[in-house]
Amino acid sequence: MSFEVEKGHVAVIIGQSGSGKSTALRCVNRLERIDSGRIEVCGHAVEAPDLDVKLLRRDIGIVFQSYNLFPHLSVIENITLALRHTKKLGRRESDEIARQVLDRVGLADKAGSFPEQLSGGQQQRAAIARSLAMSPKVMLFDEVTSALDPQLKNEVRRVIEGLAAGGMTMILVTHEMGFARRVADKVILMHKGVVHEEGSASILTDPKTKELRDFLEYDL
Amino acid sequence: MRFTYVHLLFILHGFAWTIGLSALSFALGGIGGLILMLLRTSRVASVRWVAAVFMQIIQGIPVLILLVLSYYGLGFAGLDVPPLVAAGIGMMLYASVYLADIWRGSMESIPKTQWEAAECLPLSRWQTIRLVVIPQAVRISLPSTVGFLVQILKSTSLASVVGFIELTRSGQLVNNSIIKPFLVFLLVGLLYFALCYPLSIYSQYLERRLHVGRRQTQ
């Protein structure tokens, strides 16, 4: 499979379960082993055996379906952990950055809460803030709204739309076609492990291949 | 002969040493256990293997034999060590292999997704262990760790064979002079119970609290 995402653009990967969407996304920051092929992200050759994975991941933020916040730390500590230990920033500076990103995701009042005290939507927004705080050049979103109730999906979607409007380069895996239509500069349909159809968001209303047509029909 | 105040004092002195040896065993075993646990979960297969074999061997030997071996083994090596040191080393071997297993289990119960999230931030592997995995694992392992403390406490009675005068040994000595085994060992038993029972209760309390805490997070 092959695709490109330009700086400042949003690519949305869609496709049936098991079509390889998440695996493709996870390859981008080397969470999956890369058997063959080439991936380049911000000048890093991701597939290179001698790649410094830590340097790569400083440029790439990732948000997961299950939030994966650290349950033993408060929201603000979740965010400052990597600022302090990876970027080696002081407490004051980290707290300052944490408050800025919490403000961006609308959780300024939840800094001292623990993950278990938050709703799913709030936890997911906190997880986005945690990634955002590291000022990545690219952000990956792996079905980040799939585990959420409909009314909570919306608050997370709004945050992501805000990032898109702010010019963040992003790759999203999602099952929500309406959302894909709104944020995507590029839509990629994966089918049986390969890119089956690729184009602007318009392919969601005017699909070229039978598989995309079928896929969109199932969605409705 | 009658059981007198002097005999009681002697037994209480042994009681204090039982507490001392338990604390020493737990402290040394804790250090050893932490190191073994890290080796046992190392990314290097041969290191994991060596740690696993060592733990299997020690777990397959009775504590009594470990104590005798460490006492005579140190003597054989030309070191004339006081019984406390011999007992401390034997107990350390015993405690460390079991604590390593308890802690490894707790570490492995932390979901893989927590490691992933940490390593994507990116924290290094060691930072992930130290800042993300261990703090969560400690909470999970606390009930079993405190429970194991009871086992350590009771096992210190075996240190009497290397001439260390702890509670059991002091009971034996008093009995040798007054020949009132039932009275003496009943007292000794009660003193062990007085130490172990609160720890068991505390362990059960921690266990309950852990389950309540985990329900809330789901």
Note the quaternary state here.
Answer: heterodimer
Structure classification of chain A = alpha/beta
What is the CATH top level name of chain A? Alpha Beta
Q: Taking strands numbered 1, 2, ... along the chain, how are they ordered across the largest sheet of chain A? A: 4-5-6-1-7-8
Helicity of chain A, in percent? 25-40%
Largest interface: A-B, 25 and 19 residues
Spell the H/E element sequence of chain A. EHEEHEHHHEHEHEEH
The biggest beta sheet of chain A reads: 6 strands, mixed
Give the tally of β-strands of chain A.
8
Largest sheet of chain B: none
Helix vs. strand class of chain B: mainly alpha
Task: Jot down its keywords.
heterodimer, A: 220 residues, alpha/beta, Rossmann fold, 6-stranded mixed beta sheet, 8 helices, 16% strand, globular, B: 218 residues, mainly alpha, MetI-like fold, 83% helix, 0% strand, flat
Overview of this protein structure:
The complex is a heterodimer of chains A (220) and B (218). Chain A is α/β, with parallel strands linked by helices. Chain A has one domain (10-219): 3-Layer(aba) Sandwich (Rossmann fold). Helices cover 39% and strands 16% of the residues of chain A. In chain A, helix 3 (75-85) crosses helix 4 (91-104), helix 3 runs parallel beside helix 5 and helix 4 (91-104) crosses helix 5. The longest helix of chain A is centred in the C-terminal third of the chain and has 16 residues, at 150-165. Chain A is globular and about 55 Å long. In chain B, helix 7 (167-178) packs antiparallel against helix 8 (181-217). The longest helix of chain B is centred in the last third of the chain and has 37 residues, at 181-217. With 218 residues, chain B is mostly helical. Chain B has 8 helices and no strands. The model of chain B has no long low-confidence stretch (mean pLDDT 93). Classes of the chains: A alpha/beta (220), B mainly alpha (218).
